[in-house]
Amino acid sequence: MFRITRKEDLNAMDYLIEVEAPMVAERFQPGNFAILITVPQGERIPMSIQKVEDGKIAMFIKRLGKTSIELDGFEVGDSLESVIGPLGKPPEIKRYGNVVVASDLVCGHAENYALCKALQKIEGNHVISIQTFPTKDDVYPTEELSEAVCDEYYLTTLDGSQGIKGHYNDLLKDLLDEGKVDIVFAGGDIPALRDLAKLTELYDVPTIVTVRQIMIDATGMCGSCRIFVDGEMKLTCIDGPMFDAHKLDFKDIINRLSMFKKKEGEAMEYIKSKTVDK
Amino acid sequence: MMVETDKIRVPMREQPSEERVRNFDSVPLGYSEKEAMAEARRCIQCQDPACETKCPVNMKIRAMIEKIAEGDFKEAFLIAKEDNPIPAISGRVCPQEDQCEGVCTMGKKGDAINIGKLGAFLGDWAMRNGVTEELHIDERDKKVAVIGSGPAGISCAVDLRKLGYHVTLFEALHVAGGVLQYGIPAFRLPKDIVDYELTYLQKIGVDVRLNNIVGQNVMFDELRREFDAIFIGTGAGAPRFLKIEGEELMGVYSANEFLIRVNLMKAYDFPRHDTPIVCGSRVGVIGAGNVAMDAARCAVRLGAKEVYILYRRTKRESPAREEELHHALEEGVIFMELVNPTKLLGSEDGWVKGIELVRMKLGEPDSSGRPRPVKIDGSEFIMELDTMVNALGTVPNRLFLDRTPELETTSWGGIKVDENLMTNIVGVFAGGDSTSGGATVIQALGEGKKAAASIHDYLSGR
Ligand SMILES: Cc1cc2nc3c(=O)[nH]c(=O)nc-3n(C[C@H](O)[C@H](O)[C@H](O)COP(=O)(O)OP(=O)(O)OC[C@H]3O[C@@H](n4cnc5c(N)ncnc54)[C@H](O)[C@@H]3O)c2cc1C
Ligand SMILES: Cc1cc2nc3c(=O)[nH]c(=O)nc-3n(C[C@H](O)[C@H](O)[C@H](O)COP(=O)(O)OP(=O)(O)OC[C@H]3O[C@@H](n4cnc5c(N)ncnc54)[C@H](O)[C@@H]3O)c2cc1C
Ligand code: SF4
Ligand code: SF4
Ligand code: FES
User: Fold this and answer.
1) How many whole angstroms separate alpha carbon B198 and alpha carbon A113?
2) Are B388 and B245 within one domain?
3) Domain boundary residue among B392, B415, B450?
4) For the structural domain made of A4-87, what CATH number should be given?
5) Which residues of A touch B350 (CB under 8 A)?
6) Pocket residue to mutate for ligand 4, from B60, B101, B104, most atoms within 8 A of Cβ
7) A177 contact B CB<8A
8) CA of B80 to the centre of ligand 3 (A)
9) pLDDT tens, residue by residue, B155-211
10) Of A50, A148, B122, B255, which sits 20 to 30 A from A163 (CA to CA)?
């Protein structure tokens, strides 16, 4: 079970991994995520799902810390300890009109794909996808981008080396000025989501963003993933991870994400020392 | 005639406190066969044993102890198992002083018989010697779903399986056992004991499905279609927060998060186990029940220099088991009485750095019969802390209830059941913390058994 069927580099930092997880695949809805446990003594880490096909789920993963780097050492044919899900409360897939789906980071790109694909199928939606990468070297292979699953596509790079120069927020401002946007879905870098919220609030355009918060059980039992929505405590794992951006307190969200920074550093040192031992 | 020595318990050997605060191994070391027999011989075999009536599952304590005294551990174990599938566990975690041992005749003039530790001894003995009850299961063609693998779910599943039903147990986490696994620390309840009981479940043919979250990736409707009856034992695992300023700060944990990190994910063994925990050197734990004691004792073992129990009543009103409170104090936990938190103070970078407390005094008894704590106006003061654990108790998990609106609940969110533990939906039963809001392992276990009997009646058309 949970055998890896595909694994490819997306860029120098991110990779795609496809795993057999029939139960997750069968019930997946765009916006759901999964929890992975790579090895028996491993932690439970949440990952967005890009695509499901024939009982397999695909995810985009950044080589960030201990678990994501360790998982990068797995090969096609190896199995994960567990893949749990689908988790989270997905947004309603319905007719919204002009929908913008924007992303600038690994998890955001995965959701961007899933959301575009589902929203585009609804009659009356015009789905505009914007994906931002730092430079042209970071851009994912074309088949993993949302271009094929939306109606209008923009690729931006921060340095302008490919596509439009700038961040999705810069481009979005133009679209908003044109009055072309009924709703925005976005995911990725949290400070950029904060800027997005400020921007769309000016135009009074509903904005749904994916909040990443540190999770353990992802069933509403620990409270680790708590955030404040309009001052009320919500749990990212069961009430989210998608929330109305205009009601979020981004400062706390950003703070809490760094809670285990020092420990994560120790974990990295530990795997390095283990590899030296070998 | 009672000789003086009969008044005193055979002492339980324990890890010395200066040693045990550095590990997560069991604090009590357990009775040897000789010690167990000596303790059992103190029992005067009452005609009308009060101990049995006060045991929530009415274990046949007298007969069990008689067999231990004779050295017939196998027979004693089988007697214990008749009413209690997990004597090794209940013996370690029951609040015996309020139950069996609280009314033991021997306790009137001396020490009550150590019934709990004798039960634990039997469970351990059977595990070590590979002794199990012989089962002959007559298969039936009906299927029952059990949701949740805590003590309520375990006992319900075991009893139904023994009656021949096909039982599928759905558990949300990647490990079965409920609070026994993720809540109660290994130094009180070693995990090999819990694992052993869970293996037994599979051995007798219960189909255990981990990572199955009913209401999320398995729908309640599907279960209703697929199974002839359902038992809900989802517990009350959601944390309650104080709703005061500062709960978003880093270094502030619910007891559930703190204990799940430590026990389920084994953060004490970080980085060999991946899940981290940040525990500072001055830790405050709000509350004084078992959960609070467990969190405080974990903090001590994680290296905290000062650990405070912050309680709005006094030690006397603490709902924790006697043994736990005693062990916590031995391990250096400081009990601060008559204080209530009013807000948490944070540093520039978002970490908790202190707590504002207000002093309390005891007033008139409240509905629970305990004196009501009353705030002393103007007595607020600040205490420096770098970690805060909130052990205020828990409430039923919202995830399941939100997605099963057809289930009737009480005003506080518990599942409503009738005297047979049936919910408002015919064929759907519930028990344990999901209906009581939080009680004890043995009560949950008793309700699991009772529900199994009701389900059997229901399915056999009685
Ligand atoms: C709903 C959701 C969807 C996500 N989707 C993706 C995705 O599609 N691709 C991807 O690469 N990452 C995704 N993440 C983030 C991913 O879970 C973390 O990057 C991962 O846990 C890092 O683990 P690590 O050991 O490699 O790194 P670590 O060094 O342990 O952590 C690096 C950083 O990751 C975050 N993190 C660590 N542990 C957790 C945890 N248990 N839960 C959440 N965040 C954590 C923290 O901000 C931390 O500073 C998602 C997170 C959430 C909550
Ligand atoms: C830290 C702590 C210490 C304690 N100490 C003691 C003690 O010393 N003595 C004592 O007698 N009692 C103690 N208790 C109380 C006791 O543990 C509980 O009363 C008892 O465990 C309740 O059993 P239960 O089976 O109802 O629920 P739980 O043990 O809570 O088990 C419920 C199970 O259901 C699962 N679940 C929940 N929702 C779903 C879903 N939707 N789908 C599938 N599975 C689901 C959960 O993951 C969990 O495994 C303590 C509790 C805690 C938290
Ligand atoms: S189950 Fe608990 S109350 Fe009953 S005899 Fe055992 S320790 Fe005592
Ligand atoms: S009450 Fe005490 S002395 Fe009497 S039978 Fe029970 S354990 Fe023995
Ligand atoms: S991850 Fe534990 S409550 Fe959300």
Assistant:
1) 41
2) yes
3) B392
4) 2.40.30.10
5) 252, 255-256, 258
6) B104
7) no
8) 10
9) 999 999 999 999 999 999 999 999 999 999 999 999 999 999 889 899 999 999 999
10) A50
